[in-house]
Specification:
Strand order of the largest sheet: 2-4-5-7-6
Number of strands: 7
Structural class: alpha+beta
CATH architecture of the largest domain: 2-Layer Sandwich
CATH superfamily of the largest domain: Histidine kinase-like ATPase, C-terminal domain
CATH topology of the largest domain: Heat Shock Protein 90
Strand content: 5-15%
Helix content: 55-70%
Low-confidence stretches: none
Radius of gyration: 47 Å
Shape: rod-shaped
Distance between the termini: 59 Å
CATH class of the largest domain: Alpha Beta
Mean pLDDT: 78
Number of domains: 3
């Protein structure tokens, strides 16, 4: 990866280079000052030496002057070294300037190193702070997009890798927005089609129902005709239920339903849902019981929750036989309200357990049932609109249990 393409990395390299150049210039300045200081110390030393020799041997003034200005040969240097070494010239006590110069340079070097390190560290910290602040901003923007604010955009006006990432996220968000709008239009179109088709079907269905009622009112002893009329009524009832559920499901799919959330007694809603099946249960010799320890108040849309629970109860009624029992229990916890609809009927085949909530799904093991394949789908959609979910447990020939889990929206 070419770092110079990344604007942030380029800026960091420029800043570090500037700091290093400033450090190099400062090093030269310190070296120049140190050299001048050392020169002054050497000159002062020579002054002291010349003064001492002149005071001790005034007759040698011209020779002393020549000693400091004349060209010195190598032999003279060697002879002087030997003489001074014998006198202990290299002792620190005789050259205090050397010790002072060393200490001064150590302190200066330490201060310079600390200043350079602090400058580099500050530069890197400021860069990382700005860099991660931008990343945090991108993260907040992405979270807003995840939460549904599709119009949110990431700042991609600069150059570099992060800007490219922001541009890619913006492109993805725009594409997602387009797909969402398209999906909305498709759902509205589907709703309109289903609504139109359903309304168109209502007229002939009403006519067929009326004709069936007229034919049944006719006195006839023909057993075949009576049997056909029974089947015709059953199919007409099934078609009417299917049309009604299709209309409800199309409204849910289109997302045009606003739940009217109010506080209701959940026990009353369950009783109302169960009461609509009393006649059928008596005719089919089945029993139903509601088990609740106390009255539970819950914030919900009464009509839609009633629809969901009615579909669960209807499913239990359809998949039980004479003598079977259905039980509805309600349980309240600090965070959930659970409504369980269980029966001791034929249960759900293992091959079907993962598909029962799919719309129009019909099990090959229960083709003789009169269901439309929409009831469970509709119930699931309604419960999810309330923020909950449905779980199911079953075993073949041991019954089934559907449990509605609703989040606690009001204080206990």
């Amino acid at each position: 990866m070419n770092l110079l393409v990344n604007h942030s990395a380029k800026r960091l390299l420029v800043l570090l280079t500037s700091v290093l150049i400033a450090g190099a210039v400062l090093t030269q300045i310190i070296a120049f000052i140190s050299a001048g200081h050392f020169k002054n110390e050497m000159i002062s030393h020579d002054y002291a030496l010349a003064g001492y020799l002149t005071a001790s041997h005034p007759e040698l003034t011209s020779d002393i002057r020549a000693a400091f200005t004349a060209d010195i040969t190598e032999d003279q240097v060697k002879a002087g070294r030997t003489l001074l070494e014998q006198a202990g010239y290299i002792s620190p006590n005789l050259l205090p300037q050397v010790g002072k110069f060393y200490k001064s340079n150590v302190v200066t070097g330490l201060i310079y190193s600390l200043m350079m390190g602090a400058a580099i560290l500050l530069t890197v910290c400021l860069f990382l702070r700005a860099h991660y602040k931008k990343i945090a901003g991108y993260n907040d923007a992405v979270n807003k997009i995840i939460e549904g604010e599709i119009s949110t955009r990431l700042d991609d006006s600069e150059e570099g890798t992060l800007a490219k990432l922001a541009a890619a996220v913006n492109t993805m968000t725009a594409s997602l927005h387009t797909h969402i709008e398209k999906e909305k239009h498709n759902r509205i179109f589907l709703k309109d089609v289903l609504t139109n088709v359903s309304h168109q079907l209502k007229t002939p269905l009403s006519a067929l129902t009326m004709y069936t009622d007229i034919m049944r009112d006719e006195n006839t002893d023909n057993e075949v005709i009576a049997n056909f009329l029974d089947k015709s009524e059953n199919e007409l009832d099934r078609m009417q239920a299917l049309i009604a559920n299709l209309l409800k499901l199309s409204r849910l799919d289109a997302g045009i339903i606003d739940l009217s959330i109010k506080d209701y007694q959940l026990n009353d809603i369950i009783k109302q849902a169960a009461a609509s099946f009393e006649t059928r249960l008596q005719q089919e010799n089945k029993t139903l019981a509601i088990k609740a320890d106390k009255e539970i108040q819950y914030a919900c849309d009464r009509e839609w929750l009633l629809e969901a629970l009615s579909n669960l109860i209807k499913n239990a009624v359809e998949y039980t036989t004479a003598g079977n029992h259905i039980e509805i229990s309600v349980e309240e916890t600090p965070v959930l309200v659970k409504i369980a609809v269980r029966d001791n009927g034929e249960g759900i085949h293992p091959d079907d357990i993962n598909h029962i909530f799919k719309r129009f799904y019909r099990s090959r093991f229960s083709q003789n049932k009169q269901g439309t394949g929409i009831g469970l789908t509709l119930a699931k959609s309604v419960i999810e609109m309330h923020g909950g979910f449905i779980s199911v447990e079953s075993a073949a020939n041991k019954g089934a249990e559907f449990t509605v889990h609703l989040p606690r929206l009001t204080k206990l």
